[in-house]
Amino acid sequence: MTAGGKTTRSPVVLVTRPREGIVAATLNRPHRANALTEEVFEELGALCAELSRDPSVRVLVLRGAGETFCSGYDVGEVGRVAALPPLELTTLLERQAAVIAGLRELPQTVVAAVDGVAAGAGLSLALAADVRVLTGRARLQAAFVRMGLSGGDMGASWLLPRIAGFGFASEMLLTGRFVTAEEARQRGLANRVCAIQDLMPTVMDTAGQIAGNSPVSLRLTKQVLQANTDAPTLRAALEREIPLQVVAAASPDVREAVTAFRERRPPHFAAGPAGTKEERA
């Protein structure tokens, strides 16, 4: 396509709002199996910054264009990046790692819709999500060691053990083998496995169920889940839960939920802590 004699290029991350309260971000490099580049990381980082300030959004759906979720870092860039001086490479990796942390720390729930391959840094993107839905042909791979790199990359060494357990995480990171969708489901890496044609309906159904809940509840639940995963004792977890429940109880959403229950109707929750109603679809 051209505009005024200039080529118009599609965004490498395509952002849409398919429903009220839901944003979909599509990795949009299908000709390169949605491989990651510095530009993709920059756009994902900008999206995370925007969403962190947008109380109207309750769920982010992350997917890949075409038949691949994300094949990892673009192989065409690996040689150039690996040749960078150590300080430059450190700065670059820190900038990219901040995107993984940004996804994990979003106040919104992140749902990854995984079809085809999720490998290397692409696997880390999927692991950073709160919920993962895979198609039957999806395959996961911690490919780092097969590229001569450390398995400690883009948060994989932290995320994998917490989701799938230390033993299976060790196997994935040390062998670099592919994991099928069914094995991923058995190991807790996939919340659901569905047919290819059912992927987005299943994901949107899940996202819709989440988005229909109180945004205050969603934010606090995600926060306490992540914090208490590493709680040293049950009592420490309880002590973290109580003040957050006090905050939730003070929200108008509790009164709305009780009123809706008594009136036998769905609740209509405000968009965020300030009580601003959702206006954007």
UniProtKB/TrEMBL annotation:
Its family? Answer: Belongs to the enoyl-CoA hydratase/isomerase family.
- The source's superkingdom equals Bacteria
Q: Which keywords appear in this protein's UniProt record, sorted alphabetically?
A: Isomerase
Q: What is the protein name for this chain?
A: Enoyl-CoA hydratase/isomerase family protein
Q: Which organism is it from?
A: Streptomyces dangxiongensis
Q: Which Gene3D superfamilies match?
A: 2-enoyl-CoA Hydratase, Chain A, domain 1, Lyase 2-enoyl-coa Hydratase, Chain A, domain 2
Q: Which GO terms describe its molecular function?
A: isomerase activity
One family name in Pfam for this protein: ECH_1
